[in-house]
Amino acid sequence: MADASLKKILGSITGYLEIERRMGVDCFLREKALQRRLDLLKEIEEEVLRCEKCSLYKTRKKPVLGEGNLYAKILFLGEAPGVEEDREGKPFVGRAGKLLTQIVEALGFRREEVYITNVLKCRPPENRSPLPQEVNACFDYLQRQIEIIKPSVICALGRFANLALSKNDLSLNQIHGKEYFYAGIKVIPTFHPAYLLRNPEEKKTAWQDFKKVIKILNPKSKTNKLLHLDF
Ligand code: URA
Ligand code: SF4
Asked: Which domains does the chain have, with CATH numbers?
């Protein structure tokens, strides 16, 4: 074989091997980064299991850290576990959770593609509202979760999610429509799904808020093409 053709073949093989090597390195780095996120969340989970920073640990069955994609672009933040969540150790699995899943799907995502968590990791007895000292005591866990996941946008569901992130104790009506930033991440204050179950006439307004989420993720998207929220 002529020298020139041999050189050409060797050149192609070297090029191919370099691409393979880079892909291997990329894959390795991606796996390491994912493992790092998993480890950091595991640390928080273990701390929450032992946590006695407020009195709610005494009455809860299972703490609820949160669940979803560790690279989620959207983080949904609720208030606190309810009876079903306390029993299962998972967020938003009751009636309000079903509605949240419908909202996520109407936005074009699967539930596993977003991240879902709460301000409080333990259920308040009789589902009473969180106390300010409980919100403060539990905040460090949420702050770390957000730091790990680094979502592009946070949907703050209801008064307590907004109290935790904005540090302003405003009613949802006062803060509704006033987007703000938490740690450089855009926060959309909107209604809690449990409120929407009690006040279905507000669903249209809520849908306008949820569509803003899509606009933030993809400014060119035609959100008017999104399904009208049929929930
Ligand atoms: N309501 C919440 O705020 N969080 C849940 O996980 C369930 C209901
Ligand atoms: Fe700790 Fe939060 Fe549970 Fe209170 S609610 S005991 S601060 S994990």
From this structure: 33-225 (3.40.470.10)
Percent of the chain with pLDDT over 70: 96
Quote the CA–CA distance of 205 and 182 in Å, as a whole number. 23
Are 143 and 184 spatial neighbours (Cβ–Cβ below 8 Å)? no
CA distances from 204 to 104, 162, 210, 229 (A): 15, 20, 10, 7
Geometric angle at alpha carbon 192, from 163 and 43, rounded to 5°: 65
Please name which ligand lies nearest the alpha carbon of 66. 1
More confident residue, 221 or 175: 175
Cα 93 to ligand 1 centroid, rounded to whole Å: 8
Q: Is the pLDDT of residue 177 over 80?
A: yes
Tell me, in angstroms, the distance from the centre of ligand 1 to residue 166's CA: 19
| Ligand with smallest separation from the Cα of 56 | 2
